Amino acid sequence: MIDEVCKNLLSDTSVKDNQITNALRHMITWLQWPKHVNLHLWIIRLCFGLAETGRLIILFEITSEMAATVAQKLWYRNIQSTVLQVLITLLLFNQSCPMAFHGIIPILEKAFDEVEEVDIKEELSRLVQTLIYMHPGYPELYHPLSALLAEYEVLSETCMQEMVKKYSVSVYNTSKKFTAFASQSKVEKRVDKVGLENLGNTCFLNSVVQALYNIDSFQSAILSSEMSSTPLLRGLQTVFAFLQLTQRASLSPHSFVKASLPTWFVEGEQQDSSEYMRFLLDSIHEETDKVNRQLPPQSEQKLLDYTLSFTGSDTVTTRCEKCSTMSSSHQKFYDISLHFDEESSNTDILDLTDMLGKAFKDENLVGDNQFYCNSCAGLQDATRSLSGFSLPSCLVLTLCRFSYNVKLNKHIKIRAPVQYPSNLEILNKKYMLNAVIVHSGTSLNGGHYYTYARSLSSPSGQWYLFNDSRVTPCASPAELSSKTCKNSRLSSDTPYLLFYTDMDSVPSTPLVGAMVNPTLRQLVVRDDLSLLREVQAAAERKSAEKKACQGNILSWYSYTDDDDNVPPGADNSIDLSGSRFIF
């Protein structure tokens, strides 16, 4: 009877969402009343019904508002078992945001003392273990609970995964009605990663942001810090927070694009991803340095310079061959440029370690490349050498594929394939391949950029292909590179920027669910609720359109539940993959 009544209630269009919300509030309040037998079953069935019909906003709002009320009812011994079942339902359905769970941690600590029955205590411990597993990355909050859990059986990861799966609800796939809408609106449920929309030849920017985001130490520092007072870093924090937490399949970072582009970049035109990366890091450094210069030397309010993990340095010494005068200068760099030999052809397979060896060798400045010697007051042959290297923890290698051809009077691309290793040792530092930005095309001012990247702290070590809004798991780019070298059809897809991370700087634990600044977290949570409203409103519009066309004499032919394909040129669907939220 409960199932039938709840089904009729939720399918009745005259019953509004606010009425269902108020009904749930009252039922939760009445839980401790002794005459209300099986009231918990009504609450639980309504929650599952709301999930099945895609009314997730009601679920999340009720959980946020009433979780503490439900948890406090664990102190009433005669209803502890039924209350715990309701609490399990509310908290495990609310998988996108940990704040409802975090808000009742003190109540749960007290509940372990109030509950006497062993079976209920065991069930409570299983719930808490699963919630900690579902919302990792908050050790300071979980420490008191962890101490209480020490005396209970450790729940296996498989059991916790099964519990999470039972209550797992996709924003885009909660019923047949929602599945149809999701398919038509080109929204794909994301697995682990979030894409970035191409806002008009912004793939050069998207590829850099995704590469930087997947460098664990950099991501962690950006997300765990206070909201920056500098606009560019604050924008990057916001983008990273959404890439970490959002329920959207992809994002449209309009504001960040506008704020981070160099003034000489023409909006809407393809640009150089290497140039953009250097400008972005340098601009963040300059913003930080400007604020710090205005503070007293010993001030504790000085901002951290997050670009230091990418900053290396060396000493350049030039020796005139005629007078032996030597001049030296200390320089900093965000990447090391690796040049191709003039005789390299587009079919020669080169090795990265050989190119690095040549980059560190002395350079003879002769012919058109002579050095101006102040002592000789003229151009002279000279030798340039590098020394005093200080390599960064995040080493970026740029394969300088674009050179100016005097005869053709234009920049051309050197498409010679380069094989690069997953592990690299330079100057006694051991690095692991973290990300690769690939340029596809034959021209500096055209083509397309995409990124291969992985989290080095992830146990799986899974690689992903970030191609603007589309993100897919893939094989190692080092393996793909060797295949590309043998495939002439893919010869225009060449590695351009290689990101290697010092093994000693890789965090020991995965960053999934790592501590995010509360202000950033709230921003994402508010947008997730907006997304739910958008999806629900769109599903309701689709349902209304279906009912409207049922009276049409041709409806039996033109509309079926399974007919979700739209004819070419007639796609009027709403894309909720990311463009509805602009930051």
Describe the structure.
This protein is 42% helix and 18% strand. The chain contains 20 helices and 20 strands. The strands form 6 sheets. Strands 5, 11, 15, 16, 17, 18, 19 and 20 form an 8-stranded mixed β-sheet that branches. Strands 4-3-10-7 form a 4-stranded antiparallel β-sheet, with no helix packed on it. Strands 1-2 form a two-stranded parallel ribbon. A hairpin with a 4-residue loop joins strand 12 and strand 13. The protein is elongated, with a radius of gyration of 29 Å. The C terminus is likely disordered.
Blueprint (SSEs and pairs):
Layout: H1 2-11, H2 17-29, H3 39-52, H4 56-72, H5 80-93, H6 99-103, H7 105-114, H8 118-134, H9 139-149, H10 157-166, H11 176-184, E1 195-196, H12 203-213, H13 216-224, H14 231-245, E2 250-251, H15 254-260, H16 273-293, E3 312-320, E4 326-333, E5 336-339, E6 350-351, H17 352-359, E7 363-365, E8 371-373, E9 378-380, E10 382-390, E11 394-400, E12 402-405, E13 410-413, E14 418-419, E15 423-426, E16 429-440, E17 448-453, E18 463-467, E19 470-474, H18 477-485, E20 493-502, H19 518-549, H20 555-558
Parallel strand pairs: 1-2, 5-11, 6-14
Antiparallel strand pairs: 3-4, 3-10, 7-10, 8-9, 11-20, 12-13, 15-16, 16-17, 16-20, 17-18, 18-19
Helix pairs in contact: 1-3, 2-4, 3-5, 4-5, 5-8, 7-9, 8-10, 12-16, 14-15, 14-19
